[in-house]
Write a structure and sequence with these properties.
Blueprint (H helix, E strand, L loop, with lengths): L14 E6 L13 E10 L4 E9 L7 E4 L4 E4 L5 E3 L8 E3 L4 E6 L5 E3 L5 E10 L4 E11 L5 E4 L4 E3 L8 E2 L8 E3 L4 E5 L5 E2 L1 E11 L4 E10 L2 E2 L1 E7 L2 E3 L3 E9 L2 E2 L3 E2 L3 E6 L2 E7 L5 E7 L28 E8 L5 E2 L3 E8 L1 E7 L4 E3 L6 E12 L17 E7 L12 E2 L1 E4 L2 E14 L2 H6 L1 E12 L1 E3 L6 E6 L5 E9 L14 E10 L6 E13 L2 E20 L12 E14 L7 E16 L9 E7 L6 E4 L2 E2 L2 E2 L2 E2 L2 E6 L36 E5 L7 E6 L6 E7 L4 E7 L6 E3 L6 E9 L2 E9 L2
Parallel strand pairs: 5-11, 13-19, 20-30, 22-31, 32-40, 33-41
Antiparallel strand pairs: 1-2, 2-3, 4-7, 6-9, 8-10, 10-11, 12-15, 14-17, 16-18, 18-19, 21-23, 23-28, 24-25, 26-27, 26-29, 29-31, 32-34, 34-38, 35-36, 35-39, 37-38, 39-41, 42-43, 42-53, 43-44, 44-45, 45-46, 46-47, 47-48, 48-49, 48-52, 50-51, 54-55, 55-58, 56-57, 56-59, 59-60
Length: 761
Amino acid sequence: PNLIGSITATDNCVRTITQSPTASTALSSSHNQQHVVTFTATDAAGNTATCSATLTAKDVTAPVISVCASDQNVDLNGSCQLIVPNLIGSITATDNCVRTITQSPTASTALSSSHNQQHVVTFMATDAAGNTATCSATLTAKDVTVPVITSCPTDVTVAATDPGSCYATNVVLGSPSSSDNCSTNTSNNAPTQYPLGQTIVKWTVTDAAGNTATCNQTVTVQKIQTTTTVTVSPVSQQYSDKVVFTATITPASCDAGGSVGGSVTFKIGTMAICTAPVATDGTATCTASLLEDQVYDANLNDPLNATSGPLDPQNNPKTVSACFSEVNSNFSVATATTTLAVTCEDADITYNGGAYFGANPNTNSGTITVSAFVQDKDDDTGSPETTRGDIRNATITFREGSSAGSLIGSADIPVGLVNPNNFQDGIATSEKSYTLTNTDISCGGKIIDVWAGTGNYYCGSEIGEVVPVCLSLPGGDFVTGGGWIIMQNSEGSYAGTDNKRMHAALAFKWNKSNKNLQGNSTIIYKRVVDGVQKVYQIKSNSIQSMIVNTVNNDGVATNTSPTYRMATIVTKANLRDLTDPDFPVSVFGNLTLTITAWESINVTNGSEDRISVQLMGSGSQGLIFSSNWISGATKWQQLDGGKMQVRNPAATIPCPTCPTKIDNTITAKAGEMESVPEVLSFNVKAFPNPTQTEFNVYLEGATDESVSLIVYDALGRKIKQFEKQGGNIPIHFGRDLKGGIYILEVRQGKNSKTVRLIKQN
């Protein structure tokens, strides 16, 4: 500054005052820097006087900030912190002297923050004199880091809380695990009620900035677990007859799931029987016949090739399955099973084979051919309705005497049709060759009792009787025959029933001396008692007499143009109830049997041969059986089938003029009778049979030898074997046996006998 005016100087003469530096001189300076200004007073003579003043520089001009840092967003770091950026470089400031710019908070300062939280950064421009200027910028924290879900809750499978409502509630879900730089909130879209099937629960993890991460959890509400049952009615039914099948599903519906619906296929084994829809109440019912495709192959060269299929009555019980299909997917429905016993179909069997066969006299051998007509029985009882099966699913087995006898031919012979359009009527045949024993030869032949039984899919009436047939040895001294009649006028306390068959077979022969008789006869007939058909057998034992004559049509002996050879045979005999051939029941013994056999001389095919049979008791027993009782006597009846052969014992015996006796002589030729005493053969009986406790076994014709007893089950498996004392002491056993059918084989020495036993539960 110009400071001269502030100087006071005196001088005796004129003087001048100067300063250095002069006024307006610009001196570079800093605040508080001192500058010395020298003042000089000079007179004209050049005399001078000086003084000085110190100037201290003062910066009183404040800086000016023209551009400040702008407000801005700053991303939060992984620790949810805002790191302050260095913003000084964005500041524009001016000042007359040197100045500095600072910011607060300084760069790199970590500020705890939250999303959208604002932080003010202040900038200050300061010069050396301490003059300042400030401005500020706002930093807004921004969370741009997305949460990370490290694990989602595991999927859940639950049952419906209320099967009737088709949903689940109060399902425990768990929660996800997650990480984020800042705090988060977890939520889901889980419903209150979970319907059947799968529900996707979406989990969302959200931070304050709204950044989200999601994952899915599957909640499976199981299908409605149902209980299924199947029943059959009846639980045991004949093959071909109808069975009511009923399946039940519980529960059968629910509010949201609807009805179970669908259909049920009922199967026996793998074979589908019938199909029915499932009603709204969860039941399905159908009634069907137990029929299957034919079990034979009609394309084979031998079409009669019966086999066993799923409904084979021999293998029980059957497994019945109720197989559900097309049901509502909301329901879990399992196959239900039960059992059904398929019993064999009833069949009526009639023997229609030959009754009389001849043996070769050169070889003493011959073949019998047996045949049976079998008909599916129409046994409709109405509840449930029955149906008729296919007789081709039956087999026939022919045996000697009973079901335990020797086979005649092969077992289980397939049945063929009589009429290809009628599946209810069938026929089966078999044959067997025999070589006559010396005893057979001495009797003029052999009588074979033919038993026939059905098998495979059929059983029932077996044959209704055991039919005797005769294998005769041709010669000049015998009476043999076999055949049958339809009874019309039977009488006696055990009379046969009209229109039922009587079968007869006889084989008698003189011995070589023409003095004595040997042989036997069997008569089988039917009798209906109180609506039940029974079968009776008359069997001869000791022979009393045989008279042979040539006679006319009226039975009068003649040698002039005779039309018949007639034999009158008298024997002792027994009567048995043979309704069940395996369990014959003795009725009477020591009866008198009289048989007349007529052989037509002119018609040799047997169509005009005749027979009569009479069985008498002793005393008050009276007439037991007459085959044809007319006007107080048993009369002959022409054979409906079969053949008789009557031959004289010798050329001169008998003759119509010879006296006859009915005691111990046979014809006019005297001779002693070859007595054949009635011998009680080895036999086994069990009482009671069936039993619920034990069997009492009695032996007939037994010796004192020890007895071996073997028990087999219905499949032929040996169940037990034990020894007992012989004689007539009853044998008790069977308490340990379960309910079922058994075969008891009793052995004593060379004797052996089988008996069928039934143990009831």
